[in-house]
Amino acid sequence: MNQTPRAFVAEPPRAHANQSSLFGPMNPRITRWQGRRVWLIGASSGIGEATALALHARGAQVQLSARNTQALQAVASRMNGQGQVWPLDVTDASAVQQVANAILAQGPLDLVLYCAGHYREMRAQSLDLADLRRHLDINYSGALHLMHAVLPALIAQGHGHLSLISSVAGFRGLPKGLAYGPTKAALTHLAENLYMDLRPLGLGVSVVHPGFVQTPLTAQNRFEMPALIAPEQAAQAMLDGWARGAFDIHFPRRFTRWMKLLRLLPYRAYFPLVHRFTGL
Q1: Is 119 designated active site?
Q2: Which domain holds residue 244?
């Protein structure tokens, strides 16, 4: 095991311990993974699975969590049995705490990545309260359960990185996004607040905004998805973002840059433009 001190390889400019440089990295850069301990929640498929495999390939010790035990074991088998499997339902706060305690008892965590997610199309004309709540429970409340379970330990150790996977769907309201979009907007807002509180304490915080990625969630879409990428490409973009010390990691940029520009439009222009391009 790598015996180097558990501090990340590079630090942002130290003009002041509680400030980020205007032009420098917003987080400590993570450029080496050998021996780093990672807990990845939502590791059974899609972006989570691809990221777990990419981190393992670079020498990280990956802790795998998701609801599907069989799928997790399949991912662990691709790591030559080196990935530890911790089945978990993120909607169960006590279960999240128990798993966190067990993982932390083995040593400090260098990265905690929340990748659990739920997505179904929904419009107001077919509002489903139970599914609205399921989106909220998995996409947002599960992240809160994780924060409650790990933040005291991360703050006490004074280093580590917390990353939340949001979505460009959280930038602004979109057709059929009645259930999904608001939960991702909440995750982005949560990450922004966490950054302001935790960065002065030595912790890194990032929020990930993927565009369209080939996953079981997007497989249900019945429209052509622009700039669609593979989960492995998404994982590489995330590793690149952590290596840059980025806070906002978004990809593929040929698509996400346009989505960011749309956030600047006034509503009077935004709503007609969305209708024009989606027909909805």
Answers
A1: no
A2: 37-278
